[in-house]
Write a structure and sequence with these properties.
With about 200 residues, the protein is of the alpha+beta class. It has one domain. The protein is about 70% helix and about 15% strand. Strands 1-2-3 form a three-stranded antiparallel β-sheet. Helix 2 packs antiparallel against helix 4, helix 3 packs across helix 5 and helix 5 packs antiparallel against helix 6. It is globular. It starts with a helix and ends with a helix.
């Protein structure tokens, strides 16, 4: 497809869609530069977030099983880079009676889910009070659902190990993303109703 053809098709895209896509791209680029360049190397956000998710995961498992057998602890493992240097991965381990059940890595702490959710909220035009309210309540809700997901994965590793991997990568991932989409739809409907009732 030639550049002229692409330009022609782009010109046919409605202005509102262009604005939406442009804002989404800007947010994505800015976030990746900020995260990969400054936040990720020092685990500025990841360390406390992963720790809190692991702590609450252990607490949720204790609550569900009516015990105090589950705990969490910070662990690390080393690996060799392509250049031969030694690197380290820090993660939180969920334990039962001191024995490690699963690890919660930074990739599982929900940070990317927060960014994905908030980006959509910021892109859609609406009143600041709706943006703030849905951002705060949405992040709290997604955090809680992610803790539930981690607890269920740990539980399945212990009691249903043959199904744990499938549940981890597909079932619980579907639940989390479906929940986020439901929040988006609720926000979109609220924005629509707000715009209808306040055309100015």
């Amino acid at each position: 497809m030639s550049g002229a053809t692409l330009q022609s098709k782009w010109n046919q895209v409605p202005k509102a869609v262009k604005v939406f896509l442009s804002r989404a791209l800007i947010i994505l680029v800015v976030w990746k530069i900020l995260y990969l360049g400054f936040l990720a190397p020092h685990r500025t956000l990841d360390a406390p977030l992963t720790y809190s998710v692991a702590s609450l995961t252990a607490g949720a498992l204790n609550l569900y099983t009516h015990s105090k057998a589950y705990t969490s602890k910070t662990t690390s493992r080393s690996y060799k880079t392509e250049t031969g240097a030694i690197g380290y991965v820090y993660e939180e381990a969920i334990c039962i009676n001191g024995k490690i059940v699963v690890y919660i890595e930074d990739a599982c702490n929900g940070l990317e889910l927060f960014v994905l959710y908030i980006s959509f909220i910021l892109i859609l035009p609406s009143a600041a009070k709706y943006k703030a309210g849905y951002t705060i309540l949405g992040v709290i809700a997604i955090y809680a659902v992610n803790v539930f997901r981690c607890a269920m994965v740990a539980y399945m590793v212990l009691y249903y190990p043959t199904h744990a991997d499938f549940a981890h990568h597909y079932v619980f991932a579907f639940i989390v993303y479906a929940f986020i989409i439901a929040l988006w739809l609720a926000y979109s409907n609220k924005v629509s109703l707000s715009n209808d009732s306040n055309p100015n």
